[in-house]
Amino acid sequence: MLPRERSGRSVAWLWAIAVGATLTWAPLARANPPAPTGPPRPPSPLAPAGEREAMAERPLGAGSYKPGNGVTLHSQDGRFALNFAMWAQLLFTGRHEQTPVSGAAARTASLELRRARVVLQGHAFTPHLKYYAHLMFAPKDLGFKDGAPTRAPIFQWYATLTRLANAQLQAGFFFVAYARQRMAPLPRLQFADNSTASYEFTLDQDMGLQVASPDIAGLGLLRYYAGVFMGDGYDWYKAGDFGFTYMGRVELLPLGMFEDFNEPDFERLTRPKLSLGAAYAYSDRDHRTRAIAGTSFVDGGTMSAHNFTADMSFKLAGFSVLADAYWRRGWRQSGGLRDEEGLPLSVQAARNGFGWTAQMGIFVPRTRLEASARNAGVRPPIVGASSLARLDEVGAGLNYYFFRHAVKLQTDYIHTWGPALPTGRGDQVRVQLQLMF
Questions:
Q1: Which of 189, 149, 242 is nearest to 359 (CA)?
Q2: CA angle 137, 143, 145 (to 5 degrees)
Q3: Domain assignment present for 44
């Protein structure tokens, strides 16, 4: 045998042994090596003081469960806490259109998983650093189109620093603290949804910074919110043009603090409770027809607008009242888009106008049954151009709270009419079952 042949065979045998050893020991390989055992090494003098203690593993203390609020776990030292909750709404809707669009049925019915949500919240490192994550999974929430989602599953996601009680700093993606009914958590409504006026004039979720106090000076009388937002809503992942939204809100509770953002009066106290609120927002060069909401302008332009709202919540012995009023005055900036013939598209007028909501609920004494009623409306201004059309709404409902909002059955009837409805008048019956864990 030639020396070159013997050398080639030796190399082949070495490769075979290496491959065999690799295959033999591969099951024992680990993606992450085990943590070192034995006494811990002293921290480096270059490391920040107290960093090792802050990042150390902590044993959990006793957990708790509260119906409707989920499971809460916290560390024994109280520096970390996690609350996990989930809720869903199964909704049946029957609808009748007086003048249906061409090719559509006058009567329709649907059964859907209207909302399916998971909420994670708590604090980290200190009770003054709080976090909140609200995720959604229902197809309508995710904006399914042709079988694919068009919206991220993030409903809200933010952190709040509460070290300064009168100046708590909040940052992330959350509801602009502008209108009362939109600020109320969705599972705590008396109807299956907000009013038509609320959806027209309110400001939705947005990326931003907010400074607030839930109880100014601890007096139990006043709250405030002030913030700056990107003005892009769910388009927060895109680069903006410095067209921000600026907001301020104040609330007065002359008879003391209470759950004014929980629409029913579960406590049924014989002492009246009242909350009065007012808010102003300036939208600078918003790219959609409503402030942080609506659709894009046909001409591709923007709208700047003054937005104002005032509202109140009153509760007494199972009787609750919610009322709000809205006003918007905006002006357009053309986008310069052209049609197929090269002619500039007409500039769509701003959606100027006003609206209102008047809603009430009353419990049958010593029962879990509540009756509710609502009237809402949207109006264009008396003077001046506007792309906003008149819309009216009246409705009534019955709610049975098996375990308050944790398990409840809601039924409501809504009648809408006006030029804003392309099909004329509409009648809608809804039955909704809600379960919160």
A1: 189
A2: 120
A3: no
Over residues 13-42, the pLDDT tens digits come to: 555 555 454 444 444 444 556 655 667 778
pLDDT at 143 over 80: yes
Q: How many domains does the chain have?
A: 1
Distance CA 229, CA 291 (A): 11
Q: Which two tokens stand for residue 254?
A: 């002359």
DSSP conformational letter for 216: G
Is the torsion defined by CA of 274, 281, 414, 90 positive or negative?
negative
Q: How far apart are CA 102 and CA 43, in angstroms?
A: 75
In this model, does residue 185 exceed pLDDT 80?
Answer: yes
Query: Are the beta carbons of 171 and 206 closer than 8 angstroms?
Result: no
User: Read out DSSP for 171-213?
Assistant: EEEEE-TT-HHHHS-GGG-SSSS--HHHHHH---EEEEEEEEE
Contacts of 275 (CB under 8 A, 6+ apart): 251, 252, 253, 258, 260, 312, 313, 314
Residue 21 domain flag: no
The DSSP letter of residue 235 is: G
Q: What is the CATH number of the domain that holds 375?
A: 2.40.160.10
Dihedral angle sign, alpha carbons of residues 20, 21, 27, 29: negative
**174, 158 Cβ separation under 8 angstroms:** yes
Q: Is residue 86 part of a domain?
A: yes
Give 187-222 pLDDT, tens digit per residue: 999 999 999 999 999 998 999 999 999 999 999 999
The full DSSP string for 353-364 is EEEEEEEEEEEP
Residue 2: band (very low, low, confident or very high) from pLDDT cuts 50, 70, 90:
very low
Residue-by-residue DSSP string for 23-36 = HHHGGG--SSPPPP
Lowest mean pLDDT among 9-18, 200-209, 344-353, 374-383: 9-18
Task: Please tell me which residue, 369 or 296, carries the higher pLDDT value.
Answer: 369
Report the predicted TM-score, pTM, of the whole model to 2 decimal places. Answer: 0.83
CB 70 within 8 A of CB 83: yes
Q: Note whether residue 377 is domain-resident.
A: yes
Range of the domain at 217: 62-338+345-436
